[in-house]
């Protein structure tokens, strides 16, 4: 047993010794293997990508202002309709009965007017008679033929006749007012009856039908929607949700392209008409609706389709381009080592140009060590405006450091000022420190390798 324990202890000590030696070998013999990509020259288009929904320019929801049972439908989905065309019918029986009752009440009111006028004529005739009697009684009383008591009676009859005439005149006016009231009731009943016939308010296409024959619609709280009609499907719009960081680059009349799932091989185009200021916030993400007008002469695109929109906002031609992966690479070195390399290649005191020099960079000048080397055919501001693009360039404030792989496998830092990007490659707007030319290798990643310790054993660390 002691011999076995001794052998086990020896094996453990030998294993630990081998592990310690291997660790020192791995630490001291790291051989980095770099992954590189070429610097090239070409064109870049910076775009805004968004997702939207296709809609008709004008969409009208046709409802019912009266409640009842749908008795007939004259149109269906995709039906073409004209303004004023009958598209549905609600059972009119109850409303026809209400109209007949209102007309009967109107006739009764008109008869009451005739009666009141007849009573008024009777009261006026009585007034004329009592007036004559009163005048005669006054004359006879003055001649002492009639007594004062008879004069008072004639005066009382005269006053009573005048009051009766006034009352009869008021009854005539009251009866006439009732006639007007009944006429209004007839109009309301007739209007409700007319509302049972549903007509198309515009020329267009029925894109939604929400009722069936026999279904009861209730319009007590709000008008129920029976149909949805799109006015003109040859002129449509895309409502694209664009991020708040992109709306500053979008301008009216910009040319836009988009695709739909129904026609994956086709590309459609339109123009930006407006960016609506009504913001939508979902989980702290703020978006704005960008409205894009386009023609749909063949009516291939339908309302509700999802559109994948591409809005170009800037472009550059024949410029120096670097892959975006090179912009993200940082060597696995200590801060002191990187500072020493910066000092060796003159990056410790960067010669960043002033704001006034940005124009020279955007005109396509390639800088080598701060001096102009070559002028590119970058798209000018006037050309950008002519094609609806924004000539802005997203400059990094302090420049970006790239790591160039030299022939001896050492690294050389190059500080640049970046321009526009298509999210794959980025324009080199200006080389601030160092030099950068086409076909040079930029480091995009690295793997640290070491010698093999045993069968199938290696050490690797990728950055």
Describe the structure.
The strands form 5 sheets. Strands 2-11-14-13-12-15 form a 6-stranded antiparallel beta barrel. The protein has a 4-stranded antiparallel beta sheet with strand order 3-10-8-5, with no helix packed on it. It folds into 3 domains: 162 residues, no CATH class; 66 residues, RNA polymerase II/Efflux pump adaptor protein, barrel-sandwich hybrid domain (OB fold (Dihydrolipoamide Acetyltransferase, E2P), Beta Barrel); 103 residues, Helix Hairpins (Orthogonal Bundle), CATH 1.10.287. A hairpin with a 2-residue loop joins strand 12 and strand 13. 33% of the residues lie in helices and 37% in strands. The protein has 7 helices and 22 strands. 23% of the residues are buried. The C terminus is likely disordered. The two termini are 50 Å apart. It is of the alpha+beta class and 463 residues long.
What integer is the average pLDDT?
82
Strand content: 35-45%
Low-confidence blocks of residues = 351-396, 452-463
Q: Report the structural category.
A: alpha+beta
Domain module tally: 3
Q: Name the overall outline.
A: elongated
Question: What is the quaternary state of this protein?
Answer: single chain
N to C succession of SSEs: HEEEEEEHHEEEEEEEEEHHHEEHEEEEE
Give the number of DSSP strands. Answer: 22
Cα gyration radius (Å): 47 Å
Number of helices: 7
Terminus-to-terminus distance: 50 Å
Tell me the helix content.
Answer: 25-40%
Strand order of the largest sheet: 2-11-14-13-12-15
How many strands, what sense, and barrel or not for the largest sheet? 6 strands, antiparallel, barrel
């Amino acid at each position: 047993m002691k011999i076995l324990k001794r052998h086990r202890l020896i094996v453990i000590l030998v294993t630990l010794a081998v592990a310690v030696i291997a660790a020192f070998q791995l630490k001291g013999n790291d051989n980095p293997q770099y992954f590189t990509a070429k610097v090239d020259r070409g064109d870049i288009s910076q775009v805004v990508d968004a997702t939207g929904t296709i809609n008709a320019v004008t969409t009208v929801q046709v409802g019912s202002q009266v409640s009842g049972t749908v008795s007939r439908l004259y149109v269906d989905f995709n039906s073409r309709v004209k303004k004023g065309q009958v598209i549905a019918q609600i059972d009119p029986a109850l409303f026809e009965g209400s109209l007949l009752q209102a007309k009967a009440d109107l006739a009764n009111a008109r008869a009451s007017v005739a009666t009141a006028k007849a009573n008024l004529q009777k009261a006026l005739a009585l007034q004329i008679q009592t007036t004559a009697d009163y005048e005669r009684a006054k004359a006879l009383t003055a001649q002492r033929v009639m007594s004062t008591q008879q004069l008072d009676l004639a005066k009382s009859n005269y006053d009573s006749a005048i009051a009766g005439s006034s009352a009869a005149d008021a009854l005539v006016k009251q009866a006439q007012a009732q006639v007007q009231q009944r006429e209004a009731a007839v109009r309301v009943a007739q209007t409700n009856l007319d509302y049972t016939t549903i007509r198309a308010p515009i020329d267009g296409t029925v894109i939604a039908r929400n009722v069936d024959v026999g279904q009861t619609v209730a319009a007590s709280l709000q008008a129920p929607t029976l149909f949805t009609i799109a006015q003109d499907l040859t002129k449509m719009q895309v409502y694209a949700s664009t991020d708040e960081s992109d709306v500053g680059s979008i301008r009216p009349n910009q040319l836009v392209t988009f695709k739909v799932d129904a026609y994956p091989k086709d590309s459609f185009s339109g123009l930006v008409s407006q960016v609506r200021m009504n913001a939508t916030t979902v989980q702290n993400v703020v978006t704005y609706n960008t409205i894009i007008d386009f023609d749909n002469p063949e009516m291939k695109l339908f309302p509700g389709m999802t559109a994948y929109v591409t809005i170009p906002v800037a472009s550059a031609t024949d410029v120096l381009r670097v892959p975006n992966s090179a912009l993200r690479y940082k060597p696995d070195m200590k801060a002191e080592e990187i500072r020493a390399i910066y000092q060796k290649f003159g990056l410790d005191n960067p010669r960043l140009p002033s704001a006034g020099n940005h124009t020279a960079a955007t005109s396509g000048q390639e800088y080598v060590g701060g001096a102009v080397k070559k002028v590119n055919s970058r798209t000018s501001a006037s050309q950008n405006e002519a094609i609806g693009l924004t000539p802005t360039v997203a400059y990094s404030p302090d420049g970006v450091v790239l790591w160039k792989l030299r022939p001896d496998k050492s690294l050389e830092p190059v500080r640049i000022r970046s321009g526009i990007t298509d999210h794959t490659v980025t324009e080199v707007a200006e080389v601030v420190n160092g030099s950068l030319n086409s076909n040079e290798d930029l480091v995009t990643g690295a793997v640290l390798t070491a010698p093999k310790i045993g069968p199938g054993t290696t050490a690797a660390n990728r950055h």
